[in-house]
Amino acid sequence: xxxxxxxxxxxxxxxxxxxxxxxxxxxGWSVLDSGALYRLTALAVQQNGTNPDDEMAVAxxxxxxxxxxxxxxxxxxxxxxAALIRQEQVGNLASRVAAYGPVRQALLERQRAxxxxxxxxxxxxxxxxxxxxxxxxxxxxxxxVRARAERRSKQLKEKGFSANLADLLESMRARDERDRTRANxxxxxxxxxxxxxxxxxxxxxxxxxxLDLWSSLG
Length: 218
Ligand code: C5P
Hints:
single chain; alpha/beta; 5-stranded parallel sheet; 3-stranded antiparallel sheet; binds cytidine-5'-monophosphate; Multifunctional fusion protein
């Protein structure tokens, strides 16, 4: 049988990445930050001057991405861009190019290749609906928009970027709206997903909820 996958999907800054890492750590599994692949595509498009409106050109960039994940490092053509891809502007361009079907197609197999024994925790928007539809546990992680903006602002400041809360709120709303309403793999809970609201939970508590759901599957 294919190794198990726990999928964690949800809107921007709902804490998916942190929770995915912590759950993976607790289980000794690998982790896939699928948003990083869309962010890397956006960064590569920006850096090599590709026209972001040209779907096929952007899809070629996605297809040919030279990336490696090494611990905390995210290498694009050998250079660590882990901090760079966290910028809100890169996230916004990622959300634009992620609406293109050919771009999603170009990244599909690359994402599935992360599935290996003993298991994978994958976070994104369509992990449970499109990339790993057979995952035995699917989480849809939500949090109210203010809690998410505050988390994102803190995260950006830690990486040395400035962040204005009102601008962030506006940018996150626009990005979520685009992710929810696009035709290709929109942000939506899988029919068999469990919704977890982390607004009033700590990171530890949220991790515990996911691990308990996993154990309860036996
Ligand atoms: O999760 P993160 O904010 O890093 O994702 C950046 C953007 O990439 C999202 O706004 C979304 O448009 C896109 N994305 C996606 N499918 C995924 C992960 C991310 O479309 N599985």
